[in-house]
Amino acid sequence: MKQALSLSVNGLAYEVVIEPHRNLLSVIRNEVGLTGAKEGCDDSECGACMVLLDGRPANSCSVLAMQAAGRRIQTVEGLASGGKLHPLQTAFIEEGGVQCGFCTPGMLMSAKALLDSNPNPTEAEIRRYISGNLCRCTGYSGIVRAVQKAAASSR
Amino acid sequence: MRTDYRRGDGLEKVTGQARYAADMVLPGMLEGRLILAGRPHAHVRGVDASRAEALPGVFAVVTHRDVPDRRYGSAVKDRHLFAKDVVRFEGDVVAAVAARDADTLAAAIALIDIEYEDLPAVTDAEAALGQDSALVHDEWESYSLGYDGVIRDRNDCAYVDIVKGDVAKGFEEADEVVEERYVCDQSHPVPIEPHAVVAQWSGDRVTIWTTSQVPFNARSGVAETLEMPESNVRIIVPHLGGGFGGKCEFHFEAHVAALARKAGRPVRVVFSRHDEFVAPDKVNHPMTIELKTGISRDGKMTARTARVVMDTGAYASDAPSIAEIATMMAAGPYRIPHLKVEAHAVYTHKTPAGSVRAPSGPQIAWAVEQHTDELGRRVGLDGYEVRKRNLLEAGDEGPTGQTMTAIGALECLDKAREMIASTRQEGEGVGLACGWWFSFPSASSVELKMNLDGSATIITGAQENGSGAVMGLALIAAEELGLDPARVSIVYQDTEAGTWDMGSSGSQTTFNNGRALISAAGELRKRLFDIASAKLEAAADDLEIADGSVRVKGARSRGVPVADLAAAAFGQGELLVSRGSAATIPMPENFGATCAGRVAFPAFADPTFVCQAARVLVDGRTGVVTVKEIAAAHDFGHVLNPQGALGQVEGGIVHSIGMGLTEGTQYSGGRQLNPHLLDYKLQTAADAPAIRVEFVDVDGSSGPRGGKGVGEPPIIVAAAAVANAIADATGVHVRLLPMTAPRVWSALRENVSLGGVEGAASPPGLPASGEGAGQ
Amino acid sequence: MTAVEYFEPADLKQARDLLSRHPSAAIVAGGTDLVVGSRSGKRALPKSLVAIHRVNELRGIEGQHRGGLRIGALTSHADVESSSVVLRDWSALADACALVGSPATRHLGTIGGNVCNASPAMEVGGPLIIFDARVELASRGGKRTVPFHEFVTGPGRTAAKAGELLTAVILPASNRRPPVGSAYLRLEYRQAMEIAVVGAAALVAVDRRGNCKRARIALTAVAPTCIRVRAAEEMIEGKRLGDGVIDEAARAAAALARPIDDVRASADYRREMVAVIVARAINRAVARAQEAVR
Asked: N or C: at which end does chain B have fewer Cβ atoms within 10 angstroms?
């Protein structure tokens, strides 16, 4: 039976009515209408659906939408603010961190959570932190360069 | 060319604005799904959808009865859209369902009754070649072909060979002969975006948004199978989330179009990751590779016989051209005067294999390059030296008789070796591998429009899979017309808007579209110079175009903005539009056409060359291999878009390492055992090694600005370099791909029990108990 | 179609009451094998879901009287991994929690979830065995504790009764003289997003002369549940530790493994690897015991 749910996404409240077994990813993409977070697999195995829940990364495909009530959800659409790109977004474009772009929203959210908690990560720390986000295009080198550049530019 | 260029689609991708096919939402849209066989071989006794159709919210169920009864296929017309009487692999599509939401869809699928009679499955390609083998296609002889020249016999759906010189004589001249067998498992392209198709009818015309690398193939496929004019089919690719060949054919567009037509509503079908593994008929061929090569004491290869048996799965797809490429890969970029190389593509009841990124390249290079190291070892030469003495040079004859011209193979070898030597650490194994690939001349036509404000628009039918090949066209146009690339827009991957293009395959996009664009830009520039020469009272030959203006060479202050020229032309009733085509590039002279089974690759046009070197650590107790670094040297002729080329090389290397160490599909009785990402293991960011890349500049290619094809070569040799590095560290060559930890471990153990490397007391590089890399 | 009821208790009492009224409800903590499994059709959806993420009483790590530790069931793997007391005194458990899932999502998965999922390859199983851990269960009828090794009864099966909720994992105080070290290692094919091919947890108490006074060894992913291997422990207890002794114990552990062939590895390879990984786990535990002295 459908239940009402209030979700806070990028600072805005969305009232939705859903079956309780729905995962957060499908509600963000459908009822909330933000398609940045992607579905790449069935099982928390690719990270394309990564969003931030209270500032920490979560595979939204594996979270019940109902459990996200009362928590601060952030998606890639909320990264830029006041019309200005986040340093990570700029760096991804400049350093070849984007090719097909499908892993990019999830990758950006993981990277943001990393820099928010560790503003000066080593290369090994970056690679470990984003190891839950698969990319088939870049070999990760451009992504690592982008995160390093964003970290440097924010200091 | 400028290195500060930023790809034009970067901004929408980093903001989440970029729309991919699964993001498409249309009013009244239904959710659909394809029902797959789920078994490798069976008669379909009946499909009863009556209960599903009666469920409220179910709009349509479609089977073979709802589409014309005809076969399709690119090389061999051997399949139907929906299975008629038989399913031949677990991903064969039997039906499709559309319903108003995901829950109704799931309920409907549970109500569809399909009765199967399971049949034994043919799963061994070598056995399937036998005259007594059961047939995967009983009616193979009645199938028509997509093109001439395919040699078929029963389950062998493509035989190709190269015969050069006299191998018997060549082996007599050898001082050492090495004979080896290598085996490769199936692997998958695994784009992060699964297939998705949205179809919407408007009267007789259908628009299909799809995850296709080849929109024009998709259009002709829909037109052919649904018996409609191509002019009534429009294929649009929204942003594509990677392809790697997995989306390189007419796949599911007609299935979804048929479903939407019957449902009377737009329909969206999005694949699950499981279905992405099982259903699309573009996986990497499993294969066995038998190599026998003779080498003289002074290190020159004298003769080679090779036999490649490729498991092509249930349908032929483009197997014949891949078999052709396989013969060139088995010969390798080497000077071997006598060759007898043959390749077979064989039907089995598995997911069909096809042109995944550099098809047959990674597998065969992995075998040939280990073979090459062994050949060197037999005559006392290391990996560098044996290659130095045998790699093709300008003036040499290639495997099918072409004369090599613009070729940087030796330079790549030197460069890669130099790079890896500078970073090598104690305890590491180091290996080299060389390879080659082709550029693919194809028909291509591009339109270029100048807008009244001096900005420009390129219209092309090309497809951008993420590599930046289409985005890089803006850079070329900008250079040709003195514009800022940010003022050049591109209309692409829409069959109604651009002319026919081969799609993002064969490393062809920049090679062909680039040339067409340069031609179109040249025409436009000439027109601008004509208009300007009147205004500036200077001869057209004395003019140049840069920074948004046409100006007199050597007198920069005498110039006129391009926007003014465009406005002036408009004032006279003229629109500034031009069209350019890529001129045909003749194939270099060769005898390939006389070899059996030749359809597309009698030789390699404008070949590219690569050498990559690997540093690895091997945990001798567990077989786990850690790749520390890959150093890559590539001859791409002249690189037009350095950021794009670098991205292709870095990505291709990591993909190759995945194929080499951790990926691989395991089968049981015709069913994939690991169609999911936990057990089909891609390299993560924590696994990917350090990568260094150098481009070797080589003159003489026919490509745009002397460039050659970039997309595929990067994936070909990294796994091979890793294999040679493992052998360097342990004394053991691993001849099963992927070289998983258990396989490396077994190979080490076998070698120990056989007494180790000739002349060594025990295999070098095995740590003592309790030690070891990684843990 | 599917009618699923959803409840979100605000505290433990509400949770217990709900579970007594809906004894076959599925309990959802942080992440969810449940959501995923049902989406791909692997498992039917349960009729009721009780989401306990707001029951904050179940979160947290507390020292116990006389040196034990109580870890609330909703404590995340990230919190266990980074707890200084766990790192120091129950290192093997920190090792295990640091390996679950991916680094970015360790905040979501919970130790209770890992325990109740009861996978033969569960990371925390080996460490909980070597520490003689107990699990605490609560229901409307009251509380009880069960030794961990009796709680997990088979692949995906636990001894939890209908209406019961796992509330805590309890690590009893133990004798720290002579100094104790522990470690958990697993064999994996890539550096992240992995599941154990083979895992080994080891605990040793080592005196100044290098004699092992006490040992515990447990194996992961080579039997239907994680298992303790006493015969291997007995081969190092009371002995002076060196490569030969450790290797013998490791081989004894391997002989007790009951691995299967699956897509990740053959039983033979797993059995051989038990010896390798057990030896490495013991060595690391010994090194940590020696560090504990300083």
From this structure: N
The model's pLDDT over A22-43, given as tens digits with 9 standing for 90+, comes to 999 999 999 999 999 999 997 8
* Class of the CATH-defined domain B445-581: alpha beta
Tell which of A27, A56, A78 closes a domain: A78
Q: Measure Cα distances from A14 to A59, B478, C53 in Å.
A: 20, 44, 21
Instruction: Report the predicted TM-score, pTM, of the whole model to 2 decimal places.
Output: 0.96
Claim to verify: residue A8 and residue A50 sit in the same structural domain = yes
Best A62, A63, A140 residue to mutate vs chain C (most C CBs within 10 Å) = A62
pLDDT for residue C46: 79
Looking at domain B10-119+195-270, what is its CATH homologous superfamily?
Aldehyde oxidase/xanthine dehydrogenase, a/b hammerhead (3.90.1170.50)
Calculate how close chain A gets to C274, using CA atoms only, in Å: 26
B560 has which bridge partners?
B550
pLDDT in tens, A60-108: 999 999 999 999 999 999 999 989 999 999 999 999 999 999 999 999 9
| DSSP 8-state class, residue B748 | H
CB-CB under 8 Å, C193 with B684: yes
Q: Give A23 to chain C, closest Cα distance, Å.
A: 7
Can you give the C-alpha Rg of chain B in angstroms?
27
Taking an 8 Å cut-off on Cβ atoms, the answer to whether A50 and C104 are in contact is yes
Interchain contact, C6 vs A66, CB within 8 Å: yes
Spell out which residues of chain A touch residue C10, defining contact as CB-CB under 8 Å: none
Structural domain that includes position A136: 87-153
Alpha helices in A95-130 (DSSP H): 104-117, 123-129
Residue B441, preceding bond cis, omega within 30 degrees?
no
Residue A49 belongs to a domain with what CATH number? 3.10.20.30
Our measurement of the distance from residue C42's CA atom to the centroid of its chain's CA atoms, rounded to an integer in Å, reads 24
Q: Enumerate residue ranges in chain C where pLDDT < 70.
A: 1-2, 31-44, 294
What domains does chain C contain, in order, with CATH numbers? 5-51+58-171 (3.30.465.10), 181-293 (3.30.390.50)
Nearest neighbour of A113 by CB, restricted to C36, C104, C191:
C104
Q: What residue segments make up the domains of chain B, in order of their start? A: 10-119+195-270, 287-440+590-753, 445-581
> Among B293, B78, B252, B325, which Cα is nearest to B167's?
B293
Bridge-based pairing state of the strands A50-53 and A56-59: antiparallel
